[in-house]
Specification:
The protein contains 20 helices and no strands. The protein has two domains: 226 residues, no CATH class; 240 residues, no CATH class. The longest helix has 35 residues. By secondary structure, it is mainly α. 48% of the residues are buried. It is 83% helix and 0% strand.
Length: 477
């Protein structure tokens, strides 16, 4: 499968699946209470940590290793399963303590049921890694999309039957089951009990540092929900988590699309510095060209979007959504920067960098926490900029490029996005109907940004035209 085809299928897999879940989430937000989403946000903290422990280290180690064997695959599989069971037992044991800590009587029951998905999600880890190595995102699309449709449809039905928070728990477990079954069948790989201590050591040498670095990042991403859940009410946490999920849809998915495709390609060319930097620069341009206007446009249209799709009872999350758009605007770029360290096998440096970044992040969080949710979101903006600089700095030392030059390459897209946002903001002030504001804002934003890009002939614009003209043909990076 060609690079462009892989990006397209990866994009379809992420955005079709997440798009279905996004729409389902909008429907459920109208049927369930903000406090229900707040409770799920607390559960997600522990699930995200467990999932990172299971998935991140050994899955990426398999992708990075060029001479992988069946023994490596079997070792990774049984190691993941063992870790999953161990983590579930830990969650089972601490569930009553967490229920008492948050003063939520049924939290332990929710956690024990929700945690079953940890074991289920460990089953297709190797199968998914094999599909990614082959750049077979078409099979991953079929699996995740069907899982999203089935789990989403059933969850909406249950929501109308007033099942409350159980709707969200059942939705997640159903998605995990269907997705796991389809991924395992698509990969046509089935484990054998043929493990090796030597293979385990090799996987750990790469995966160990990667795992710890990913774990630190996951804890940071979910720490806000954990702290807000304790310091504020479940309703406030619901506002925050809903805003974060809405912003995550474009930001995290775009980052994931490029990372999933670019990472195995860069791994195969890790010894060719010029090719790696060429792929990196082009990917950086395209990501910035797409993400910047999306995030700024979403921030401008936050209030009419929430009023129209979530109803006015969710309006307190609008300001949080606007701030998080700015905070998460650079996340896809940071994700791409991290890939450059991993393909060189410099997981040790990536780990050190994560420790420094998360130390700074915790200080910012502790400082902003007493001042409210808006201050916490502003703190995330500062952290995002610091992380962007640090990620770029370490890469510049390894690959020998000028950090200022790379950052300046992003400035045209940022300036154009700000101009677009300003024009849209001014124009929609003269409109009184919410739906009209949203429609005009989106159409005007696309027109203005595309016009600016064409007039100034941005490189990423030319790349986009080339991609559109050569869809499903091989791009020779």
């Amino acid at each position: 499968m060609s690079v462009l085809s892989s990006i397209i299928w990866s994009g379809l897999e992420r955005f079709s699946t997440q798009g279905v879940q996004f729409i389902v989430g909008l429907i459920l937000a109208r049927l369930l209470l903000p406090s229900d989403f707040g409770l799920i946000a607390i559960l997600n903290f522990f699930f995200a940590i467990s999932q990172t422990v299971i998935e991140s280290g050994f899955s990426n180690a398999l992708i990075q290793k060029q001479n992988r064997t069946d023994i490596d695959l079997n070792t990774a599989f049984f190691l993941n399963i063992s870790i999953a069971f161990f983590l579930y037992l830990i969650l089972w044991g601490i569930a009553p303590c967490l229920s008492a800590f948050y003063e939520m009587p049924n939290l332990d029951i929710y956690m024990r049921v929700y945690g079953i998905s940890i074991i289920i999600n460990s089953l297709p880890i190797v199968s998914k890694a094999l599909l990614t190595i082959k750049l077979d995102f078409r099979s991953q699309l079929k699996a995740s999309l069907l899982a999203a449709l089935i789990s989403g449809g059933i969850s909406i039905f249950l929501a109308y039957q007033d099942w409350g928070i159980w709707v969200l728990i059942i939705q997640f477990i159903l998605f995990s089951v269907v997705n796991a079954v389809l991924l395992c069948s698509s990969s046509k790989w089935f484990p054998k009990f043929d493990v090796s201590v030597a293979s385990m050591k090799h996987l750990y040498l790469f995966g160990g540092n990667y795992l710890i670095a990913s774990l630190l990042h996951t804890i940071y991403l979910n720490l806000h929900s954990l702290v807000i859940g304790k310091m504020y009410s479940p309703m406030n946490l619901g506002y925050y988590s809903r805003a974060e999920q809405l912003v995550n849809f474009p930001s995290a998915n775009l980052g994931s699309v490029f990372s999933r495709v670019i990472y195995p390609i860069l791994c195969s060319k890790q010894d060719d510095r010029n090719t790696v930097l060429e792929i990196y620069s082009r990917s950086l341009r395209i990501i910035s060209f797409i993400v910047f206007p999306l995030m700024i446009g979403f921030a401008i249209l936050a209030e009419p979007f929430i009023s129209l799709f979530l109803t006015d009872r969710w309006l307190p999350s609008a300001i949080l959504l606007q701030l998080l758009c700015l905070a998460m605007m650079f996340d896809p770029i940071n994700s791409l920067n991290i890939q450059l360290l991993y393909i060189k096998g410099r997981t040790d440096l990536a780990l050190k960098m994560e420790v420094v970044k998360k130390f700074v992040a915790i200080i910012i969080l502790l400082f902003s926490l007493p001042f409210g949710l808006e201050a916490i979101c502003i703190g995330r903006i500062f952290y995002s900029l610091i992380a962007l600089y640090l990620n770029s700095y370490f890469n510049s030392k390894i690959y020998q490029f000028k950090i200022l030059g790379e950052i300046l390459k992003l400035s045209p897209y940022l300036i154009a996005s700000i101009c677009m946002g300003g024009i849209v903001y001014i124009c929609i002030q003269f409109l009184h109907y919410i739906a009209l504001k949203l429609c005009v804002g989106v159409a005007l934003g696309v027109f203005v940004y595309w016009s600016i890009s064409k007039i100034f002939s941005f490189k990423a614009y030319n790349d986009a035209i080339q991609i559109l003209n050569r869809t499903f043909t091989r791009i020779d990076f």
